[in-house]
From TrEMBL:
One of its GO terms (cellular component) is plasma membrane. Residues 262-290 form the 4Fe-4S ferredoxin-type domain. GO terms for molecular function: 4 iron, 4 sulfur cluster binding; metal ion binding. Keywords: 4Fe-4S, Electron transport, Iron, Iron-sulfur, Membrane, Metal-binding, Transmembrane, Transmembrane helix, Transport. The lineage of its organism: Bacteria, Pseudomonadati, Pseudomonadota, Betaproteobacteria, Neisseriales. NCBIfam families: ccoG_rdxA_fixG (TIGR02745). This is Cytochrome c oxidase accessory protein CcoG. The chain crosses the membrane at residues 39-58, 78-107, 164-181, 201-218, 345-365.
Length: 478
């Protein structure tokens, strides 16, 4: 698309002879957030520290001489803090996704976009990259001046330092992320020996590039144009949802004035129209225009406005966390906490508690053993030398424990049956491994007439009788 076509405005007829010109395509303008101090900024720093300490350190944590959190896709085994899961445990992933979705609905209905403002990976890494940018290039005006300056040696040096730090951090982030799917200690050894596999190399660089591009270049565009959360959040908001709002009743009319001046006599409100709230916003919006889908709820504008109010010796809270109903004086702001327990939120919480309760209960009673039984379909039933009838089965025993176990296989349901196991009597299965075993069951003809007869295989750990499963099968007679 040519530049001239991109700049052609479109006229919208609004009615009553009014019209408005808009541009369907506009060039992206870089946002230079200004550094701000305050309570909520300290909270953001704390959440950045907590989330990144967890992310970067967790792959190195060992439990039972194994990585505590590892999703080993190549071996179809997932280790989560001492628990071992196999693909058959997909139900737990489903429960986790359901709980996350319901939790997000409850959190958003009650607290708005606090997740976006404090813990979302896009927000966290954008914040880290902005810290690096500020440390290298300076605060807002210094960065604007540097970008508009010609390509001097100083500019090239500062840009090179900044991007080098960004790239190093991005590569370490990509390496750590892959370390959740490939044992990170082995991954580090492969890198040190230049023996990284092509796929591991691809994914390390892919996630490094994603981190570098999203946090270093795209930033607020990811939140505004790519993230679906900003688009469907309005369906979860209501008039009692916590949002960041500008108190127009107190702040308007806006205007500059000298400190200590009788601004009320001049018909002005508390807003001095300094635009600092806009300068600190990481997505570049003016919160004074009302609630906007671009707002990520980071509260940088609150810290900035409170700082200005302190300088002007005005009360804080011109921009604050509040609700639509509280802002319209339908109830005092001290009652906002009480509104969290409204029926809509409680419904979400109840569903979340049920899902979590069932999942946790299932994990508590879960046996660290799984058994799959298949019949030898080549020989349904055959007669052995002494006239007894024999069925052949294949048992796959999966040891879903962090310890080695030996198992004893018995049967019941058919009186006088004999169980013949390939190899020794006890089946040894290493920790988190599986073993295929051939089993033959023999029954006297008088005990197994034509058709199928219900029976059960009982598999018990010889060193821990509490680890036992009972699986239903059938014996074909004739």
């Amino acid at each position: 698309m040519s530049k001239k076509l991109r700049d052609i405005p479109v006229t919208l007829i609004k009615g009553d002879g009014e019209y408005e010109e808009i541009h369907l395509y506009s060039k992206h303008k870089k946002i230079y957030p200004r550094w701000v101090n305050g309570l909520f900024n300290r909270w953001r720093i704390l959440f950045v520290a907590i989330t990144q300490l967890f992310f970067y350190s967790m792959p190195w944590l060992q439990i039972n001489d194994r990585q505590a959190l590892l999703f080993n896709i190549s071996e179809h085994t997932f280790y989560i803090y001492g628990f071992v899961f196999f693909p058959q445990d997909f139900i737990y992933l489903t429960a986790l996704l359901l709980a996350s979705a319901i939790g997000l609905f409850a959190w958003t209905t009650a607290g708005g976009r606090l997740w976006c403002g404090y813990a979302c990976p896009q927000t966290v890494y954008t914040e880290i990259f902005l810290w690096i940018e500020k440390w290298v290039e300076g605060d807002r005006m210094a960065r604007i001046k540097l970008d508009n300056a010609p390509a001097t040696a100083r500019k090239i040096r500062l840009k090179t330092i900044k991007h080098s730090i960004w790239i190093i951090l991005s590569l370490w982030t990509g390496f750590t992320f892959v370390g959740y799917f490939t044992p990170i200690r082995s991954l580090w050894s492969e890198i040190a020996q230049f023996g990284l596999s092509p796929w591991e190399t691809f994914w390390v660089f892919f996630y490094a590039f994603a981190t570098y591009g999203n946090a270093g270049w795209m930033r607020e565009q990811v939140c505004k144009y790519m993230c679906p959360y900003a688009r469907f959040q309005s369906t979860m908001f209501d008039a009692d949802t916590l949002i960041i709002s500008y108190d127009a009743e107190r702040g308007d009319a806006r205007g500059s004035r000298k400190k200590g001046a009788d601004y009320k006599a001049a018909g002005l409100g508390d807003c001095i129209d300094c635009t600092v709230c806009v300068q600190v916003c990481p997505v570049g919006i003016d919160i004074r225009d009302g609630l906007q889908y671009e707002c990520i709820g980071c509260a940088a504008c609150i810290d900035a406005c409170d700082e200005i109010m302190d300088k002007m010796q005005y009360p804080r809270g011109l921009i604050r966390y509040t609700t639509e109903n509280a802002l319209e004086h339908k109830y005092p702001e001290r009652d906002i906490i009480k509104k969290i327990t409204r029926p809509r939120v409680m419904m979400y919480v109840l569903v979340l508690i049920i899902i979590l309760g069932i999942t946790i209960g299932s994990l508590v009673i879960r046996k660290p053993i799984k058994v799959n039984i298949s019949r030898d379909r080549m020989t349904m039933v055959r007669e052995v030398e002494d006239g007894w009838l024999e069925n052949s089965y294949r048992l796959q025993i999966q040891n879903a424990d962090e310890k080695d176990h030996s198992y004893i296989i018995t049967t019941d349901g058919l009186s006088g049956s004999r169980t013949i196991i390939e190899g020794t009597g006890q089946i040894f299965v290493p920790a988190t491994a599986s073993q295929d075993i051939g089993v033959r069951v023999q029954v006297a003809p008088s005990k197994a007439g034509p058709g199928g007869h219900e029976m059960h295989f009982i598999i018990t750990a010889s060193d821990n009788p509490a680890i036992q499963v009972r699986e239903k099968s059938s014996f074909l007679g004739r």
